[in-house]
Specification:
It is a single chain. By secondary structure, this protein is mostly beta strands. It is 0% helix and 55% strand. It is built from no helices and eleven strands. The strands form two sheets. Strands 2, 4, 5, 6, 9, 10 and 11 form a seven-stranded mixed β-sheet that branches. Strands 1-3-8-7 form a four-stranded antiparallel β-sheet, with no helix packed on it. Strand 4 and strand 5 form a beta hairpin. The protein is globular and about 40 Å long.
């Protein structure tokens, strides 16, 4: 079993920054990728960023240049540094890990508003 616990969400003004964390526990295989997804009200869940073994990263076009995903393999933790936040970044952000089964965290709310 795998557990994913997100933290770091909150209310921030446009142009501000937040850093999300996802602590993974259980049977984590370090070579498997992890990622961040988000779901805004009334919209489908979408990919934000992923990070694979060796540090290869992939970003949604909408966040390229503003968000950075990173991973601490010793702590089994993945981070999402979000800069220059916009109102359209408002969503519940979910951490994801998959190894035969797809695991999701409970989500953390990010609200960008003045």
């Amino acid at each position: 079993q795998v557990q994913l616990v997100e933290s770091g969400g909150g209310l921030v003004q446009p142009g501000g920054s937040l850093r999300l964390s996802c602590a993974a526990s259980g049977s984590i295989v370090s070579s498997k990728p992890m990622g961040w997804y988000r779901q805004a009200p009334g919209k489908e869940r979408e990919l934000v960023a992923t990070i694979a073994w060796g540090g290869n990263t992939n970003y949604a076009n909408s966040v390229k240049g503003r968000f950075t995903i990173s991973r601490d393999y010793a702590k089994n933790t993945v981070y999402l540094q979000m800069n220059s936040l916009k109102a359209e970044d408002t969503a519940v952000y979910y951490c994801q890990y998959s190894h035969y089964v797809v695991y999701w965290g409970q989500g953390t709310q990010v609200t960008v508003s003045s």
